[in-house]
Amino acid sequence: MKKILILGGTGFVGRHLCEKLAEGDYRTTVLTRRRSNARHVQMLPMVDVLEGSAHDAATLTPLLAEHDAVVNLVAILHGSEAAFDKAHVQLPAALVKACTAAEQRRIVHVSSLGADLKAPSMYQRSKARGEAVLKSSGLDISVLRPSVIFGAEDKFLNTFASLQKLFPFIPLAGSTARFQPVWVEDVATALVKCLEDKSTIGQTYEACGPEVFTLKQLVQLAGQYSGHEKPVIGLPDALARIQAGLMELAPGEPIMSRDNLDAMKVDNISGGTLPGLQALGITPSALSAVVPFYLGAQGLRSGLTAKRKTAGRF
Question: CA 295, CA 290: separation in Å to the nearest integer?
Fold first, then answer.
């Protein structure tokens, strides 16, 4: 039985990855700063939750020595240059150092579509720097670069569906930006494939769905599928910048930040030069085949259950 350590396993992708691994012959350890964050995974079979910091070498090194591979899912979407650097660059550097000390070679890392040292946003540049740290380590690295990820618990389409339930219209920054959204179950499957297939070592895969949408189209679809469709009005750049700045001042995690707007200056779609999900034997699911089941009247959980019963892939 293989043992897998997951960093960032309490997040959206992590929960689905834990479910996938629990279905197979894996023992999984989720390292989290707060055990209360792990309520979605701690009841799964063959999943152990350990409280601690992934930045702490004294915690990380002995854990790595006890496992066959590590999956790094740690990421933030909003923050300062320093915050992005800590999460996306310093943590991979600490992971490399701990892996070397523990004689652990196998790392599967989730980056982001659009990661580039010359990208317009802090997020994208930090993701590229993190990739560079890992790839220069000499360890056995597989990298997955997903586009925006959708699924029953996502904070993307669900948020825009909720906003349309509350407001008479949606003023939208970055409305013309293009995305190639990918289902979270396909991302989780891809991560398991990377863990299982040694030929993925040294490879970077683009995890994208089969369709390209503008942000405005995605917001409109969220309204349609949830039954609360409202007019969506694209904002000019100057107003979009003001809106994003104001959202940053609101308590909690912002719906959109100025760095998000910078990221959307580059379309978040496959470049066509790297292998995609098909190279891992995965046929990516269309948004229309999944989203109506969890944004519709059946609700989140029942919709996901219905999808699983009809998909023929679970």
Answer: 9
Q: Residue 177: name the closest of 226, 124, 132, 225 by CA.
A: 124
Angle of CA points 120, 123, 127, to nearest 5°:
105
What does the pLDDT look like over 151-207, one tens digit per residue?
Answer: 998 999 999 999 999 999 999 999 999 999 999 999 999 999 999 999 999 999 999
Q: Which helix (H) or strand (E) holds 31?
A: strand 26-32
Whole-number Å distance between alpha carbons of 178 and 172? 14
pTM over 0.90: yes
- Give 63-77 pLDDT, tens digit per residue: 999 999 999 999 999
d(CA 310, CA 15): 21
Q: Domain locations in the chain? A: 2-149+182-208+269-284
- Residue recorded with tokens 């890992």: 134
Please give the structure tokens belonging to residue 287: 């948004």
Q: Which CATH architecture has domain 2-149+182-208+269-284?
A: 3-Layer(aba) Sandwich (3.40)
Nearest to 273 by CA among 108, 116, 133, 107: 116
Q: Quote the CA–CA distance of 28 and 43 in Å, as a whole number.
A: 12
Contacts of 22 (CB under 8 A, 6+ apart): 28, 44, 45, 46, 47
Task: Give the tens place of pLDDT for each residue, 239-292.
Answer: 999 999 999 998 888 889 999 999 999 999 999 999 999 999 999 999 999 999
User: Letter for the amino acid at 29?
Assistant: T
- Report how far residue 139's alpha carbon sits from residue 197's, in angstroms, rounded to the nearest whole number: 16
Q: Which residues contact 168 (CB under 8 A, 6 or more apart)?
A: 230, 231
Radius of gyration of the chain (CA): 19
Would you place residue 306 in the very low, low, confident or very high pLDDT band (cuts 50, 70, 90)? very low
Inter-CA distances, 311 with 34, 271, 298, Å: 34, 28, 17
Tokens read off for 256: 């959109």
